[in-house]
Each structure stands twice: as structure tokens, then as C-alpha cells.
Amino acid sequence: MRSLPRTSCFCHTGLCYRLRASLPRCHSHGKIKEKALSYRTRKQLFRMVRSTQIARLDGLMLAASVDDEQAESELSEIKSQAKMIFRRLNRNSAPQASIESGQYSLHYTIQDDICFLCICDKSYPRKLAFTYLADLASEFTTTYSSSQYLSPTLRPYAFVEFDTFIQRTKKLYQDSRASQNLDKLNDELRDVTKVMTKNIEDLLYRGDSLERMGELSGRLREDSKKYRKAAVRINWELLLKQYGPFAGVGLVICILLFWRFF
Length: 262
What we know:
- The chain crosses the membrane at residues 243-261.
- Keywords: Coiled coil, Endoplasmic reticulum, ER-Golgi transport, Golgi apparatus, Membrane, Protein transport, Transmembrane, Transmembrane helix, Transport.
- The protein has a 6-stranded mixed sheet with strand order 4-3-7-6-5-8, sandwiched between helices. A two-stranded antiparallel ribbon has the order 1-2.
- It folds into 3 domains: 11-44, no CATH class; 47-208, Longin domain (Beta-Lactamase); 225-262.
- The protein is built from 9 helices and 8 strands.
- The radius of gyration is 26 Å and the shape is elongated.
- Helix 4 (126-143) runs antiparallel to helix 6 (163-172).
- The chain is α+β, with helices and mostly antiparallel strands.
- The protein is 47% helix and 16% strand.
- A hairpin with a 4-residue loop joins strand 1 and strand 2.
- 24% of the residues are buried.
């Protein structure tokens, strides 16, 4: 990761108070300024997408973000877990899921037999993570045809050049407090409340499966539909009970008036 300017002020992030003990204050704002932010300090300051991987459902890796050496070292364990998740995925798996592992969360979405997965800080907004993945999926499936990425003779990491788009998009989503990302968070069209969340230990070491997550997710969607239908029916029944007698009297009066004058 490129080092930040030595005089950068991070007052706009609203997180200066968290680093009050370790960083000096900005002379112009009277707040904290960055002196020489380490990778770990930058992690405290920004809650963001750490790494991205794209693979087919048969486990073949198609592309991945190129991470710096320090990030690679810190993310080595969770990247191994991501590979285990890829090996467990199939067409019966939940189309979207969030998996928690320590201080990180793995989010994935499946589109056209391709899994787009990102590793984020646990505090990074889930809605933003899935919007990020949707952007990657849209660009990938537009740039490459299904005959290319589903080819049986394809070699691993055949689309390594896609990292250019990954890095550019990741930069846009770097700060969850940026105005364009706040707009995405407020977008009511992307509902992630029904996306299943699972702990990595339950998934990899205690026998829970991604297929079961898919079944539970589907069951939740069906229950939600039934609830909405029942709610609509109950609302109509209440309206009829409340206003039905008045409507009936009004109808009788209208009929009598029509019969009397016409």
C-alpha cells in the first residue's frame, strides 16, 4: 500500500479521537495529524476491503487482487479459509453469504457460476461490501464472455489483468464514510438483511454447509413472502371491518337516490 503524505490530516474521517494517544495534532485544525502511519495504524483509521478473489464454482481461480507483502502476511490465514470456502461451493450453495472470521468478514456472491469474494474488516458495512462485489461481477461478466471464463481448458488466474479494475474499484470503496459510499449505504434497493451470516468455525470445522445456508436463506425468503401476503390480507380485513358498514350505508343511499330521481 502506498505511504500517505506526512502532513495529511484525517479530521474528516471522524476517527481522530481513536488515535489521540498515538498521533500528534494537526496545526491547522487542532486535531490529529498523520506523522508516519504504519499499515496497522492505517487499518485502525480506515475500515475497508482488504482483498478480493474470483473463482469458478469448480474451484478454478480466475483472478485476485495483488496485495502488498505486509497485507499478504496478515491475511494469509483468512485467505486459506477463503480457498476452503471455494472448494465447498456448488450450485446448491447460498447465492450470497457473509462469513465471520476473527477481525475479518468474508462476503461472497455467486453469478453465472462465478464466485466473487472479498475479505473486509469486520466493521466494514455489509451493504457496501455486496455493492462492491456487484460492481465487480457486472464488469467481469461484461468484459469476458461465458465461453471464456467457463472454458474447460482454462488455466488458473487466466484473467489476472482484471486486477486493474479491482484495484480501481477498491479505491472507490476504501472509505465507507466517503459521500458516494454513504449514498450506496442509503440505497434501499440493496437489501442485505436476508443474507445469511455464519461463523467460519461452524462452517469449516463443525459440519455446517453452504448448501444448508442456501436452504435456510430460501426458507427465510419463502416465510417473508407468506408473511407479506398474510399482512396484506389482514389489512384488507381490518379495512372492511372498519369502513365496510359505512360503505354499505353509502351504497344503499346512492341506490335510493338513483331510484328516486332517475
